[in-house]
């Protein structure tokens, strides 16, 4: 599931749409909102089904070929990668590692809880309470931007 590509096609359709046809104009806007929510980790149960219903309605009711084909990339990825959509919504996880909001790092077993990593992290990605001997410090999606963590550190992606 490659969110950027799907979103690109919907954004392109919105830019190129003549605007006369409500299913194309408003339907693709709603589809884009739902996709954005899913890729930001804010997807809701039922979003996949909404995308399928909206996509089908847009294809049937649009007046031109642009509107009739606009939902195809989304519908195709749902058909072929449904489990990845479900992971985004239920597990808040992106196996392709393209949805930055869904990437999470954790400090591993080598952590002694000194808090040194928090002090050097330029983006403030490390949170938690340092405790000696426990990996209690966790990092969020901004950890990827923290260049001060050496490659041999105890950081690992979860």
Write the layout of secondary structure elements.
Elements: H1 3-16, H2 22-39, H3 47-61, H4 65-69, H5 72-91, E1 105-107, H6 116-120, E2 126-127, E3 138-139, E4 155-157
Antiparallel strand pairs: 1-3, 1-4, 2-3
Helix pairs in contact: 1-2, 2-3, 3-5
Fold and architecture overview:
The protein is an alpha+beta fold. The chain has 2 domains: 3-91, Up-down Bundle (de novo design (two linked rop proteins)); 103-157, Alpha-Beta Plaits (2-Layer Sandwich), CATH 3.30.70. 49% of the residues lie in helices and 6% in strands. The chain is built from 6 helices and 4 strands. The chain has helices at residues 3-16, 22-39, 47-61, 65-69, 72-91, 116-120; strands at residues 105-107, 126-127, 138-139, 155-157. A 4-stranded antiparallel beta sheet has the order 2-3-1-4, with no helix packed on it.
Mean pLDDT score: 78
Shape: elongated
Biggest sheet, open or closed, and with what strands and sense?
A: 4 strands, antiparallel
Query: If strands are numbered along the chain, what order do they take across the biggest sheet?
Result: 2-3-1-4
Q: Look at the helices and sheets and give the structural class.
A: alpha+beta
């Amino acid at each position: 599931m490659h969110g950027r590509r799907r979103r690109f096609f919907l954004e392109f359709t919105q830019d190129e749409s003549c605007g006369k046809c409500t299913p194309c104009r408003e339907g693709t806007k709603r589809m884009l909102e739902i996709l954005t929510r899913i890729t930001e980790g804010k997807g809701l149960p039922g979003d996949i089904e909404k995308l399928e219903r909206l996509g089908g309605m847009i294809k049937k009711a649009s007046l031109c070929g642009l509107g009739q084909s606009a939902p195809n990339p989304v519908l195709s990825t749902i058909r072929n990668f449904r489990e990845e959509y479900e992971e985004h919504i239920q597990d808040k996880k992106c196996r392709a590692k393209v949805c930055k909001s869904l990437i999470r790092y954790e400090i591993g077993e080598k952590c002694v809880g000194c808090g040194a990593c928090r002090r050097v992290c330029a983006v403030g990605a490390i949170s938690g309470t340092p405790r000696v001997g426990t990996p209690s410090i966790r990092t969020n999606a901004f950890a990827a931007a923290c260049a001060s963590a050496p490659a041999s550190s105890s950081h690992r992606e979860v």
